[in-house]
Amino acid sequence: MDAADIERADWMAAVDLKILAYYYNRNPDIYGPSTVAKNIRRTDGDSYNGDYINQRMLTLADVDLLEKLERGEYRISETGIEYVDGEIGPDELPD
């Protein structure tokens, strides 16, 4: 799955789709923000800042697209999988 294939909710940052695609393609693996930040790229090819990725991952966890397991450990949730698969749309997520 590529980030471009995922429908974006109005409140989402573009990187949110990259984060979801990263976890979706590696389900059920568990990763922290620093690992994700090192493995996804901005449009200009540079890495994202780990603190920024952590903030976005917390936001995705707040709407149940990611599951926060322990401090700094996340995986994609069932809702996240359904969202990426297009089974639920952006209008069905909390604002």
What does this 3D model show about the protein?
It is a single chain. This protein is mainly α and 95 residues long. The protein has 4 helices and 2 strands; from the N terminus they run H-H-H-E-E-H. The protein has helices spanning 14-25, 33-39, 50-62, 78-84; strands at 66-70, 73-76. It has a two-stranded antiparallel sheet. Helix 2 (33-39) packs across helix 3. It is globular. The chain starts with 13 loop residues before the first helix and ends in an 11-residue tail after the last helix. The mean pLDDT is 93.
Which helices and strands occur, and which strands form pairs?
Blueprint: H1 14-25, H2 33-39, H3 50-62, E1 66-70, E2 73-76, H4 78-84
Keywords:
95 residues, mainly alpha, two-stranded antiparallel sheet, 2 strands
Secondary-structure element sequence?
HHHEEH
Percentage of β-strand residues: 5-15%
Global shape:
globular
Briefly note the structural class of the backbone.
mainly alpha
Percent helix: 40-55%
Number of helices: 4
Q: Radius of gyration, rounded?
A: 12 Å
Instruction: Catalogue the unreliable spans.
Output: none
Mean pLDDT: 93
Brief overview:
The protein is mainly alpha-helical and 95 residues long. The chain is 41% helix and 9% strand. A two-stranded antiparallel ribbon has the order 1-2.
